[in-house]
Prior knowledge:
- By secondary structure, the protein is α/β, with parallel strands linked by helices.
- It folds into three domains: 69-242, no CATH class; 289-449, no CATH class; 465-621, Glycogen Phosphorylase B (Rossmann fold, 3-Layer(aba) Sandwich), CATH 3.40.50.2000.
- The chain is built from 17 helices and 29 strands.
- It has a five-stranded parallel β-sheet. The protein has a five-stranded parallel β-sheet with strand order 25-24-26-27-29. It has a three-stranded antiparallel β-sheet with strand order 1-2-17.
- Strand 3 (45-47) and strand 4 form a beta hairpin.
- The longest helix is centred in the C-terminal third of the chain and has 17 residues, at 630-646.
- The site of one 2-acetamido-2-deoxy-beta-D-glucopyranose has 3 residues, from loops.
- Residues 504, 507-508, 511, 592 line the site of one 2-acetamido-2-deoxy-beta-D-glucopyranose.
Amino acid sequence: xxxxxxxxxxxxxxxxxxxxxxxxxxxxxxxxxxxxxxxxxxxxxxxxxxxxxxxxxxxxxxxxxxxxxxxxxxxxxxxxxxxxxxxxxxxxxxxxxxxxxxxxxxxxxxxxxxxxxxxxxxxxxxxxxxxxxxxxxxxxxxxxxxxxxxxxxxxxxxxxxxxxxxxxxxxxxxxxxxxxxxxxxxxxxxxxxxxxxxxxxxxxxxxxxxxxxxxxxxxxxxxxxxxxxxxxxxxxxxxxxxxxxxxxxxxxxxxxxxxxxxxxxxxxxxxxxxxxxxxxxxxxxxxxxxxxxxxxxxxxxxxxxxxxxxxxxxxxxxxxxxxxxxxxxxxxxxxxxxxxxxxxxxxxxxxxxxxxxxxxxxxxxxxxxxxxxxxxxxxxxxxxxxxxxxxxxxxxxxxxxxxxxxxxxxxxxxxxxxxxxxxxxxxxxxxxxxxxxxxxxxxxxxxxxxxxxxxxxxxxxxxxxxxxxxxxxxxxxxxxxxxxxxxxxxxxxxxxxxxxxxxxxxxxxxxxxxxxxxxxxxxxxxxxxxxxxxxxxxxxxxxxxxxxxxxxxxxxxxxxxxxxxxxxxxxxxxxxxxxxxxxxxxxxxxxxxxxxxxxxxxxxxxxxxxxxxxxxxxxxxxxxxxxxxxxxxxxxxxxxxxxxxxxxxxx
Length: 651
Ligand SMILES: *[C@@H]1O[C@H](CO)[C@@H](O)[C@H](O)[C@H]1NC(C)=O
Ligand SMILES: *[C@@H]1O[C@H](CO)[C@@H](O)[C@H](O)[C@H]1NC(C)=O
Ligand SMILES: *[C@@H]1O[C@H](CO)[C@@H](O)[C@H](O)[C@H]1NC(C)=O
Ligand SMILES: *[C@@H]1O[C@H](CO)[C@@H](O)[C@H](O)[C@H]1NC(C)=O
Ligand SMILES: *[C@@H]1O[C@H](CO)[C@@H](O)[C@H](O)[C@H]1NC(C)=O
Ligand SMILES: *[C@@H]1O[C@H](CO)[C@@H](O)[C@H](O)[C@H]1NC(C)=O
Ligand SMILES: *[C@@H]1O[C@H](CO)[C@@H](O)[C@H](O)[C@H]1NC(C)=O
């Protein structure tokens, strides 16, 4: 002991400040910065761990000098995107295809699922003319609409890669319906919910050329003149204002940089999505993988990923917001980047590794995010030794989609820890696209189920939750306002939806000759009434839906005792959260008797369950401004996974 301490002291005295020791473990890791090329700071910033210049979306090269996505921009000021609101130069879509579809021409395997089947129908153009074809004298180097689009463009219905080709000669590439020229590729009648039937116009027709291309110029149906639709990161009528909140995970860039178009441009010395990094660690012996992990403290290392691998891009141009119920993992990321006690910059001391694949940005709610996750894993396996060391078992990834990990191939199911909202355990599921038959969507000792977020607007904001629970404590759990027995309101759909629970309740109540007046059941949305029922019912029914359900979270936010009817579905934190203290669990088979069963609870028992909610409701709230502790509970769950790993409970 003494000898090593003396050595450290000596080295420090002699100026070797780069030496680093983890608590009482031997010195095998050093602080050491790998420099980047000189011009890196102009457009990007140096990641001193990798010696890689971190660039904004679209730029690559040692100093971000190569504009890989130039053809997706209208002007050099256009941040560019692969979105579909406005038809772009077909060469842009080809570049996007190369970016996202690494695993061959099967568009189901594109990392960005927008590039799957939907992109197949995207209309795009080249400079040229319908008579003479693509221009040979004008480079296809931008998506700037020409002054006279009618005479200067030739239109296509798809790009060559999508038919396995390499050029535009194939007749099947032509845009068949001339009515779709200049119109959004989303303008398809069958895309009812995000139909965008606007028409693209040259930038010069919009005010201030939309601040030189920070938006695009479109004519919306029914409006008299074209208007700017701003790119992600910009706002105002001509898109001249910058919007810093678009750096999702750190709107302030930790005070060490500036947010531009979703990219934190960090001051020299800081790097990462939120400029949260500033120290780089390397093995004292090059090539070694020193193991300086401590059992005493949970330490998590987050990989920094280049934009080509993962970036919170606009899922669909113009539609900048995501459905809030899917953003629990964004909240986790925000808190994690600020959490200097658990987050470590030294991967050699990490117990767990955070793989920020941003699955939702690539696959949204119902698509299969495994191709994006695979792309990220392939990348980190090449760049770092840690994934191979454990076979991915000490790595975790968030999969917030409806059916989350259920769609994953077996290798992904078995390797990485998946943090999901849906803990389906049933084996041999017959759902479409679910290959794994040997176990359900997750393995409970390895994967972690966490609550989803609620919403951040309107009456379902959990901003009154704490005051209600304080009142409840003062009333020893009794709430005389809760006079109704239970309610449910929402979609019903067929048997597979919610495992048949919603339909069973509907049939049960239809069957009764006189439905009980204290039971409320509504098919579909009921607006603000939903909020009122959460406050006046004793019980709130929490089935799942297509995948995970939000109703458990809603019930807990409002002090309504959840009745969880989800056969085979493991609930958030279920292995260490005592659900029996605050909820009622029923089987689908119990539904025919549920009214009688729920009536057997006495007022005292209900009060006791509500006091159970008082103890645990904060596990179901993400936002700290509403007293949420879901981040801390998630960390506790991850720590337990690390413990299970050491228990050899999963392989
Ligand atoms: C264009 O692609 C087709 C097949 O898709 C091929 O037969 C043809 O030779 C190509 N033309 C040129 C000029 O490369
Ligand atoms: C364009 O600018 C003019 C003058 O400022 C303004 O009156 C008009 O409303 C603007 N048009 C749009 C679509 O913003
Ligand atoms: C990890 O394993 C993969 C597949 O065997 C390999 O391609 C990769 O180079 C390995 N990574 C490292 C850092 O050795
Ligand atoms: C899975 O279900 C199919 C029928 O849907 C059945 O034939 C098969 O034996 C089942 N496999 C297992 C492992 O239960
Ligand atoms: C909670 O949020 C709602 C919706 O934004 C708002 O109307 C209400 O005043 C808020 N309540 C409190 C106590 O802040
Ligand atoms: C109970 O209902 C009364 C009357 O509507 C209301 O004033 C009171 O705030 C309610 N109590 C709680 C805890 O919601
Ligand atoms: C509804 O009534 C029918 C006919 O009596 C019966 O077969 C069915 O099981 C009942 N359904 C429920 C959900 O009670």
